[in-house]
Design goal:
Layout: H1 2-29, H2 33-55, H3 57-62, H4 67-94, H5 97-104, H6 107-119, H7 125-143, H8 154-172, H9 175-181, H10 184-202, H11 213-241, H12 243-249, H13 253-264, H14 271-293
């Protein structure tokens, strides 16, 4: 149990740190979000699939034998991973790593709305409370309580909310193929497919980039630490302590992003930001407690 908690905690922390690395690259080298997201996805996918091929080549290739699985994989690659990774990085570009990570955790609210639609029911009282907290927290993050002034840019708010929506797709779309093939195989393929498609859309080969040693180290950190290691550690944590506990512990991501952003990049984080942070993040624990109680 203790080992699982520590590993999951590290995974969530690495996710937060990688977001701040992305902010560092945007601020220092003015990178294009499509270029960074494309390289992150393709190289991370190659590493993940290499591990899968070493472990079980036959199983890694078998996903292509079923048309329905291939269709779900492509949906996951485009609507899940590509949309999720790009919207998150774009939210960082227009705001900061902390705000983007917090807004991404609006995803339980979107999943809750989806569940209500599928089950043809109204939200429960605790779910309504979470909606109020989520919208209230987002409002405070965007305006600091002043309805006449936007502290957060419209682009930052829009892409942050899109990151939350995309994260809900990421959670819902691949359930069948992940149950069948495990998590690493679909994710590895989806990373490469999504990265290639995004690269074509953004014509990233026409984008000139100039990095020094620190830029390359940050890129390597995003790919290896923030994607490959973070995801692998989270999956190990799920196996050791279960998905419910793992998802709660991995919610340390916005906290680690905030601490890293303040200490490394000296970005401001006010009391109003803290209030918005608490309101949005509390929805995860309230919704999880409800599921456990039922």
């Amino acid at each position: 149990m203790k080992k699982g908690i520590i590993i999951t905690l590290l995974g969530g922390t690495f996710w937060g740190i990688s977001g701040t690395m992305g902010q560092f690259l945007f601020q220092t080298y003015h990178l294009n979000t499509m270029w960074l997201t494309t390289l992150r996805m393709i190289f991370a996918g190659i590493i993940l699939l290499s591990v899968c091929f070493i472990k079980d080549t036959k199983k890694t290739l078998s996903i292509w034998n079923n048309k329905n699985d291939v269709f779900q994989l492509i949906l996951f690659a485009l609507l899940g991973l590509m949309f999720c990774q790009y919207s998150y990085m774009t939210a960082i570009y227009y705001s900061n790593s902390s705000t983007a990570a917090i807004l991404q955790y609006l995803n339980p609210i979107f999943i809750m709305f989806y569940t209500c639609l599928v089950c043809k029911r109204l939200p429960y009282k605790k779910e309504l409370l979470c909606v109020i907290l989520a919208f209230g927290g987002t409002f405070i993050l965007a305006t600091h309580g002043n309805i006449h002034e936007m502290i957060l840019s419209f682009e930052g708010l829009f892409w942050g909310v899109m990151a939350g929506l995309a994260a809900s797709f990421y959670s819902l779309l691949p359930r069948h193929i992940m149950n069948k093939y495990g998590s690493l195989i679909p994710t590895g393929y989806a990373m490469i497919i999504g990265g290639v498609i995004l690269g074509i859309i953004g014509r990233v080969w026409n984008i000139s980039v100039s990095l020094d040693i620190y830029g390359y180290l940050a890129m390597a950190g995003i790919i290896v630490i923030g994607t490959v290691l973070a995801f692998s550690m989270y999956l190990i944590g799920v196996n050791l302590i279960g998905p419910m506990r793992a998802s709660l512990i991995a919610a340390v991501e916005p906290l680690s992003a905030t601490i890293c952003m303040c200490l490394w990049l000296h970005s401001p984080f006010t009391l109003m930001d803290v209030l918005g942070f608490i309101m949005v993040m509390s929805t995860i624990f309230i919704l999880s407690y409800k599921k456990k109680a039922s």
